[in-house]
Amino acid sequence: MASGWGLTPRQSIEIECQRRSEKAVARECVAILSGRGIDEAILRVLAGPGAATVLNGGEGGVSGYWPRVWAMRGLLYAWDPSAARVVVEGANDLSWRVREMSAKVVAKRHLDDAHDSMTVLLDDDVARVRAAAERALIRLVESES
Length: 145
What we know:
Layout: H1 9-20, H2 22-33, H3 40-47, H4 50-55, H5 66-77, H6 84-89, H7 96-109, H8 115-121, H9 127-144
């Protein structure tokens, strides 16, 4: 699905990976998830037009959950193994959207260290989180065999 700026998040991130490098984009995502600050340019790449609202203080601003959701989603398309720790930690985020996206990244990146975290998410209050955790665990088991 194309966004309001004519690109899907995946397309936007892939273009930025070509410009900066995949590792550099992944590091920016990790910085956001670790609370080490938000580069406005990368947030615009990750979120498109929605970034403007957050950067202007709406929707919880930069300290709200949206930047973490977008950064976690960014790790679906830009990866560096150094991101594994923040992805696993994302399973404990207060925002269900971040927890769900964490499980999606675990599934895509086959993060074996996330097995326990994904098991805990099977009892999450939010059905979408539980479903994503179940898919992640299935992918982890499949990658073991």
